[in-house]
Design a protein that fits this description.
The chain has 3 helices and 4 strands, in the order E-E-H-H-H-E-E. The protein has about 90 residues and is α+β, with helices and mostly antiparallel strands. The chain has a two-stranded antiparallel sheet with strand order 1-2. A two-stranded antiparallel ribbon has the order 3-4.
């Protein structure tokens, strides 16, 4: 049986139960991408999809969003309001 993790949500909403292995792979990729600099939501999604295409089973964008929200809720990454779009970055 596959081990699951219950994600958190930054606004206190209910998280989702997802595969712990997929969560770890997604977390690693998100942090790797954001360590190079802050990105908008669109840029982050595109960068993660480019890195995992053909190497990840399931909807990359769905798992990315669930993991991103969890990382925000845990304070690992932060959403910084910008003039036009918010930017995500690794928390300081």
């Amino acid at each position: 049986m596959e081990e699951k993790i219950r994600t958190l949500h930054p606004q206190g909403k209910h998280g989702v139960n997802i595969s712990k292995a997929k969560y770890k792979a997604m977390k690693k990729t998100i942090l790797e991408v954001l360590r190079k600099g802050g990105l908008t939501h669109h840029e982050l999604t595109h960068a993660v999809e480019r890195m995992l295409k053909g190497k990840f089973e399931g909807s990359i964008s769905w798992y990315m969003e669930s993991t991103k929200l969890d990382l925000e809720a845990r304070g690992v990454i932060e959403r910084v309001p910008g003039e036009k779009y918010a930017v995500y970055r690794v928390s300081r």
